[in-house]
Each structure stands twice: as structure tokens, then as C-alpha cells.
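Demo today. Your pick:
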Amino acid sequence: MSQTAANKKLVKLLLLGAVAMFGFGFALVPLYDVLCEQLGINGKTNANAAVYEPTVIDTDRLVTIEFISHVQNGMPWEFEPTVTKMQVHPGELIRTSFSAINNGSTHIIGQAVPSVSPGQGAAYFNKTECFCFNKQPLDANSSADLPLIFYVDNALPEHINTLTLSYSLYDITERHLGTALTQGAAR
């Protein structure tokens, strides 16, 4: 085989490899979602408020709800649940909250991203009001009480006795201000 033919073959193989890697990159998101669903991790909750329809409260069953919070590295906020664990009856409307304190010297806009574990339980954890639906602006050295109203659906599978609601709080100030500046310049 001549050097030119070998080079052409190598270029074709490299291009094929690049196309395959590009395709694999697109396939990662659905593969990740399927894997998380099967393993019961990274339960995504509804991004919109659920409507609470008064229902029969299952007083014969108790489900433990655990609350966890995380703050983005370098973000000068304290962010924690007011209660770390509670027991609720499926169908019961529950009110609780998280507290946030901006210990920084500037105005910061935060956004909380929720996750429910195990993932199979996420579809049964319904938030009617949640601070995670909106951006949370806090001035320097100020605090806020962030409400959370939820209920656990009566159809929660019997083998699930504990749901863990985890919130990760991110600083979105630059992204939010960048969007506002871009929109202002377009006018």
C-alpha cells in the first residue's frame, strides 16, 4: 500500500472517529437520564407548581421527608432548611421553609435547583409553592425566609418510606445581569 493510500485511509478513520464521538456526545444526555431513572438517583422534580386538590389523607402511613442543602463553592451564602427531617402523611399539605443569608458585600441573585431521591419518588413529591420556581435576590448582609409548600401523592409506592429533597443553590448574578444588559441594549 502506498503512503498516499495509507494517509487517505487514516484520514477516513479519524473523520469516522470524530463523527462517532460527536454522536456519542449527543447520546449522553438521554443515556444519563435512563441510567439515573433505572438506578433511582438524581430525581428531577416538577419545575412548575402543582395544584393541590384536597384529597383523602392517608393517616395510616407515614413518609419521612429529609431536607438537604448545598451552596455553590465560593458563594458567600448560608442556606439551610429550617427543619432537616419530618414525617408526613401522603395527601397532607405541608408548609416548611429554608433560610438564606447573604454574608457577601454585594447584591447576589441565587437560584435553587431541586432533586428528590430516590428518583422513583420524584414523581410523587409535589410542590405547590417553592422558592426554587424563582430567582432569589438578596442584598449584602441580608436574609430571607424561603417558603416551601408540598404534598406527597397518595400513590407513592409502598416500598418508598423516605424521600430526600436536596437543593443546590447557585449564584446566577452575572448570567441574570448579562441577560438584562443584553435586553436593554437591544431596545
